[in-house]
Amino acid sequence: MVKKVLIDPVTRIEGHAKITLHLNDDGRVAEARFHVTEFRGFEKFCEGRSFREMPAITSRICGICPVSHLLCSAKTGDGLLAVTPPPAAVLLRRIMNLGQIIQSHALSFFHLSGPDLMLGFGAPPTQRSIFGLIEKRPEFARDGIRLRKFGQQVIERLGGKRIHTAWATPGGVTDPLSEENRQAILTDLETADAIITRTLTAYKEMLPRLQAEVNAFGQFPSLFLSLVTPEGNWEHHHGMVRVGDATGQVLATFHEREYARYLGEAVEPWSYLKFPYFKEAGYPQGAYRVGPLARLNLCRRIGTPRADAELIEFRQRCGAVATSSFHYHYARLVEILAAVEWLKVHLDDPRTMDRRVQAEADLNANEAVGVSEAPRGTLFHHYTVDDHGLLTRVNLLIATGQNNLPMQWTIRQIADHFLRGPELTDEMLNRMEAGIRAFDPCLSCSTHAFGAMPLHVQLVGSDGKVIAERYRGGGE
Amino acid sequence: MSVRTFTLNDQLITAAAGQSILAAAREHGIAIPTLCELEGLSTVGACRLCLVEVAGSQRLLPACTTEVQEGMTVVSESPRLKHYRQTILELFLAERNHVCAVCVSNNHCELQNRAVEQGVTHVRFDYLMPTLPVDMSHDRFGVDHNRCILCTRCVRVCDEVEGAHTWDIMGRGFQARVITDMAEPWGDSTSCTSCGKCVQVCPTGALFDKRATAGGMVKQPSFVKVLQHARARKESQ
Questions:
Q1: Which end of chain B has fewer CB atoms at under 10 Å, N or C?
Q2: Is A48–B133 a contact, with Cβ atoms under 8 angstroms apart?
Q3: Subunit contact B134:A164, Cβ cutoff 8 A
Q4: What is the pLDDT of residues B42-77, one digit of tens each?
Q5: SS3 sequence of B101-157
Q6: What confidence tier does B25 reach under pLDDT thresholds 50, 70, 90?
């Protein structure tokens, strides 16, 4: 008899989702599905609004990565104005994105996944949260909170507030960086540097003990997609889009305006999230992974000395192309170090402090595509506007959407590995959630950063009847 | 100049004959909330936010259009007035689509400020959520009818100060809409001088500079008073 296992909601991710596992007669997983149960409708209700409002509107999609949408939307606006923002504006946008990468990666690693990594996947659910972490590993928890605070302060020092600033606009940014704020970031940078250095060391010591997870948490060959510089190096805001495979072969390198030629979007009736894929490889084989793992897999080097040394070590430990999704955690830490080093480079660049930060222009194009690396992956905004700049079509290709199929495959692999018959242990359920968490999916603004979430699991027979049911209580 | 003496909130106040309760109160540092009123423009009593209690009258009267009478007793702050003012503001917020978070006037909006001052924490009415257009046809300015509260400041400043009378009102009741010329796109208006006065006096983000970002529109409506004063001085010379 076919059975179905349901995990609803998936906890400690950003947003609302559930997992269902369809089991076949011998209790093995026949199919795994990660459902996004929220419906937002941004692409539709933005129609009729001005493209100049889009950085502010789309940044409201999320409270964790508002900066990613803000910058991507402003870049798309640059395309509609057909202008190149002043060099200072580009550097300042980069600085904000680095701050964003640090704060979001810190949240994912320390607050959301830290409890699993530090307290164990089988720790009691009541302890497996940031609060349990504060109790058991206060120095680790404190480092995470401090590092996230640093990233948030970079954003605040540029944009005036930590969440939902409207500082980036089509053509540039609204305000330059003050010398006082530049100094403040440079001063705090030292603390951030110390934290990421010791965290990387600690993680590398821990990694050999996590081999079971490395092998089961989404260990499969797949395509990868990320931005790279024209030289093929690590990039997070400008550059070209690159698709590569698990053997390290580059399959395509293209400008973001050509994204629709290379990337398709499939729709499945059971999820509100679309399923993007690399057209040349077809659906679903063309599904690709984005985010820190993809960025490290596709770049030749990062461009700063210590991050480059870490990248070499990362490849020694995880393979020339890291194929286990568990290594997203490791990649995240390497990227935090990269961001810390790049911040220093940009803040020392005299062009950063130039007062001219806005290119003035009217609408010069009716269609534009913008791209930027959100912490969790490549983000595309595609706008079509009428002659007055009012949006007639909006398409947003979000990082988590692009990781959609790889997340399904990851759940399937974990379930295959850890699920034994109809017995649903708490640890097994948490491992499946942790597999999702490795991707740091961002499904909406609502962060479920608290460990003891209600978890509803159902075993459903092929006739739709509930055979077994388990409910894990808790508060939000 | 004949003088009128009246009581406002138990305080004896002297005003010039023909002066409104609002103007007299202001002269004596007593604040009465307003939205449609703007010094330098004619008063229309449209928003009803400045309603006050006048002894002997069953009805509440707008302070901006009610002249001071000798011996009248006026109350500008009471639980009853607070209730009415909150209700009025809630109706404003429910009538169109006021999404403060992404509005150009966020943190600099008179409607938002009044709502905060009057302690509006919830809107008790169902939102009408009308489908209203945004007109970005003008070279420099935009109009978003979703944020318009029909205060008619734009209509008055364009007619009384600029003398162009580009703006007017079309329709009745909650279906009323500010229009340019004969309800044509603003960019097609032949009477508009693109002076931008309407944008500066608009109390919300309904009229805005096209390049403004969320929260980036800080308006300077006080120019109307200065301009009117300068003109009066020139005419008297």
A1: C
A2: yes
A3: no
A4: 999 999 999 999 999 999 999 999 999 999 999 999
A5: HHCCCCCCCHHHHHHHHCCCCCCCCCCCCCCCCEECCCCCEEEEHHHCCCCCHHHHH
A6: very high
Length of chain A: 476
Domain-embedded: residue A7: yes
Token pair recorded at residue A156? 């605040």
Could you tell me if A114 and A134 are in contact, meaning their C-beta atoms sit under 8 angstroms apart?
Answer: no
Which pLDDT band, with edges at 50, 70 and 90, does A414 fall under?
confident
Q: Tens digit of pLDDT for each residue in A431-440?
A: 877 888 888 8
Range of the domain at A299: 220-322
> Tell me: domain B3-76, CATH 2.60.120.10, correct?
no
Specify the residue for token string 């020392």.
Answer: A348
Name the residue among A48, A60, A389 with its Cβ closest to that of B102: A60
Contact B101 A60 (CB under 8 A): yes
Closest-CA distance of chain B to residue A44, Å? 13
Residues of chain B with CATH 3.10.20.740: 3-76
CATH 3.30.70.20 at B83-236, yes or no: yes
Residue spans in chain B of domains classed CATH 3.30.70.20: 83-236
Give the end of a domain, one of A289, A306, A322: A322
| Residue A15 confidence class, pLDDT cut points 50, 70, 90 | low
Q: What is the reported pTM?
A: 0.89
CB contact under 8 A, B211 and A169: yes
Taking contacts as CB-CB distances below 8 angstroms, the residues of chain A near B135 are 388
**Sequence-separated (6 or more) residues with CB below 8 Å from residue A378:** A225, A226, A227, A241, A290, A294, A371, A372, A397, A399, A402
User: How many Cβ pairs closer than 8 A exist between chain A and B?
Assistant: 43
Domain boundary among A267, A292, A322: A322
Cα–Cα distance between A344 and A195 in angstroms, integer?
A: 16
In the stretch 399-428 of chain A, residues with CB closer than 8 A to chain B read none
Q: Is A389 on the interface with B (CB under 8 A)?
A: yes
**How far is the alpha carbon of A167 from chain B, nearest alpha carbon, in Å?**
8
Chain B residues closer than 8 Å to A44 by CB: none
Tokens 């970005």: give the residue. Answer: B136
Confidence of residue A6 (pLDDT cuts 50, 70, 90): confident
Q: How many domains does chain A have?
A: 2
Q: B142 CA to chain A: closest CA distance, Å?
A: 9
- The token pair that represents A5 in the structure block: 């296992």
Contact assignment for A50 to B214 by CB distance below 8 Å: no
**To the nearest whole number, what is the mean pLDDT of chain B?**
96
Q: Which of A150, A149, A170, A153 is nearest to A161 (CA)?
A: A153
Query: Do A56 and B136 make contact, defined as CB atoms within 8 angstroms?
Result: no
